[in-house]
Design brief:
The protein has 614 residues and is mainly α. It is 57% helix and 5% strand. It is elongated.
Length: 614
């Protein structure tokens, strides 16, 4: 409701179609001028009667506005002096009232006519199409500037650029709340019309309302309109860190990482922007870089943030740790974690588990154990991956007791050990030279988990080799083949190695023959172990046979010559050495030293004579 203090007046103005309507509340007076290009119009009504008039909205687009007895639109239409002379402004659309209703009896006739189409009884004049601005002369009509048309436009959403509202509400806080409500409801058309009306009226929205409108446009995939709004916000200094974050995130999702980085670099150079660049903006760019695994640019943004004196949040460091660990940059991840702790921030569960993995890969088991203990102190439960990584790291450092303590904690938390857990524990015992304990643990593992994988068998075979338990290694080999596992050459080599340590060359040859029958190709390590076994068993014929069967390999000749010399077979070693030299193979230093001790001096001089200089 509003009190009107002027004579009853109604004006309808549209643009490009040049529609203008004026009449009083009584049907006998007034005029209207219209064209047919645009269906939208503005109906403006004033009353000069001293009695109070109650106005109602007869449609969603009806708004009345009064300011000190005279409206802003009245100044625009009639000027500051001649109020009784209407003006027609080309290329301007000011809407919004579909009908105005007066509640007094004497104005009922006007109510009926305002709801009907234009009546030919009224004065009607049509204008030529856009581009021709000639208007028939009328003493009570003044045309303004056809050559220089007045355009109301904010540069946002050309789809709705022909409509603005003249607001009776002037409170910026209330209008900002309306924008917030419309933006959250995704009423794009309404909120854009309201925003343009606010701009034309010289009113400003709150920062929160601007950001909400910006987010609404981006949610509805109106990136161009959002960028225009963002540019206007920058010009009005209405931007915040959240504004930059919204735009950068949208650019990264729609146009890609490169466009977002280019825009970020450009904005970073603007002096006015620096005050609005908060940690959230840097977090957004770090996240965008992390999506493409660009850890180098992520590090640059991190360093740049610190140069501007900003302190990262928990989200900042969690993002950094996640990206660096995912890209294999464990040292940078550890640096980010240490900086996070020094700033008094509390890392999350995921970040702490990622740091445990990074520390174990870098061999920093002390820091990994510290993070593990910190998680337990604050009530967090490390997952089985972090526990396995820590056990494996402790095992490599021969910290067997600590490894088994972590295993006990893991069981107390209800985690079920898997193959990685058992392999880490077996490896810890093997590296600590506790081979008998490793075999006992293997037996316990077989009782708890019938599906033992190849790695566990190989770790047990390694312990058998160290202890020279050739019979136990054979049993494990038969079990592997019976369980359907694909036995590799490494497993056969471990069994042959156990026979070598136990001085069982014939058993080693049998395992070798079985290996060939299983169509498992022997490698250099297989032949080396077999030759050493035969030499210690004085099976010289078998040594010759192996050398003749395989391709010429200098390491096999060196091993055979070493063994023959150590066992006193000097003549056989000389023959093999001569054969080796004829084949063009170069002996190693130990082989040459042994031959120098046993070959005649003349032959040695002949073999190593320096060429004469002429």
């Amino acid at each position: 409701m509003v009190e009107l203090l002027r004579n009853s007046l109604a004006v309808i103005v549209t643009s490009s179609g040049f529609t203008c309507q004026y009449h009083s509340c009584r049907p006998s007076g007034g005029y209207r001028i219209h064209g047919g290009l645009f269906p939208r119009c503005l109906c403006y009504n004033l009353s000069a009667k001293t009695s109070k008039k109650h106005l109602k909205r007869d449609g969603p687009n009806m708004i009345s506005l009064r300011e000190n007895g005279r409206t802003q639109f009245e100044d625009l239409m009639f000027g500051s002096e001649g109020r009784d002379i209407p003006r027609i402004v080309s290329n301007m659309v000011a809407c919004v009232q579909s009908g105005l209703v007066c509640e007094e009896d004497e104005e009922n006739v006007f109510i009926q006519r305002s709801k009907e189409e234009f009546d030919p009884i009224y004065f009607e004049q049509k204008f030529p199409p856009l581009g021709s601005s000639e208007i028939r002369k009328k003493p009570d009509i003044e045309h303004v500037g056809a050559a220089e048309p007045l355009t109301i436009s904010t540069g946002i959403s050309t789809e709705f650029e022909d409509k603005v509202h003249f607001l009776e509400e002037r409170d910026e806080q209330i209008l900002s709340k309306r924008v917030l409500m419309l933006s959250r409801s995704n009423k794009v058309r309404s909120v854009l019309e309201l925003y343009r009306s606010l701009e034309i009226s010289g009113l400003r929205l709150s920062f929160h309302a601007c950001n909400s409108l910006l987010a609404c446009l981006l949610r509805n995939e109106m990136l161009d309109d959002a960028l225009k709004l963002f540019k206007s916000m920058k010009a009005n200094e209405s931007t915040t860190g959240h504004s930059y974050s919204l735009v950068l995130k949208a650019i990264g999702n729609i146009q890609g990482y490169d466009s977002a980085l280019k825009m970020f670099s450009k904005l970073q150079l603007e002096c006015k922007v620096k005050k609005d660049f908060d940690v959230i903006v840097y977090n957004t760019m770090i996240s965008i870089c992390g999506k493409v695994n660009n850890w180098g640019q992520t590090e640059k943004i991190w360093r740049s943030m610190k140069e501007y004196g900003l302190v990262g949040t928990t989200i900042t460091y969690c993002l950094l740790i996640s990206i660096f660990v995912r890209c294999g940059q464990n040292e940078l991840a550890i640096d980010a974690y240490c900086e996070m702790i020094s700033n008094g921030l509390k890392p999350g569960e995921d970040a702490m588990q990622a740091i445990i993995g990074a520390c174990t890969k870098e061999g920093k088991w002390n820091l990994a154990l510290n993070v593990f203990q910190r998680m337990l102190n604050i009530g967090l439960k490390p997952n089985i991956v972090a526990c396995n990584a820590l056990i494996n790291s402790l095992g490599k450092s021969r910290q067997v007791k600590l490894a088994f303590r972590v295993y006990d904690v893991m069981e107390s938390m209800g985690c079920t050990p898997d193959a990685y857990t058992w392999n880490a524990l077996l490896g810890a015992l093997y590296r600590a030279n506790q081979h008998a304990d490793a075999l006992l643990l293997f037996e316990n593992i077989r009782e708890q988990s019938p599906q033992v994988n190849l790695h566990l068998y190989n770790t047990a075979l390694m312990s058998c080799q160290k202890l020279g338990l050739w019979d136990r290694s054979l049993q494990l080999l038969w079990q592997m083949e019976a369980s359907g596992l694909s036995v590799s050459s490494a497993s056969y080599n471990l069994v042959i190695g156990a026979c070598e340590v136990a001085r069982k060359p014939k058993i080693a040859l049998q395992v070798y023959d079985h290996m060939v029958q299983q169509q498992c190709a022997p490698d250099t390590f297989t032949h080396l172990s077999l030759i050493r076994s035969c030499i210690w068993g004085s099976l010289w014929a078998e040594v010759e046979e192996i050398l003749n069967r395989v391709e010429t390999d200098v390491s096999l000749y060196n091993a055979a010559i070493h063994g023959m010399c150590l066992r006193g077979k000097i003549e056989s070693a000389k023959k093999l050495y001569t054969r080796m030299r004829k084949s063009g193979l170069k002996p190693d230093g130990k082989t040459r030293a042994l031959m120098l001790q046993n070959l005649p001096k003349d032959s040695i001089r002949q073999s190593y004579r320096w060429p004469r200089r002429y």
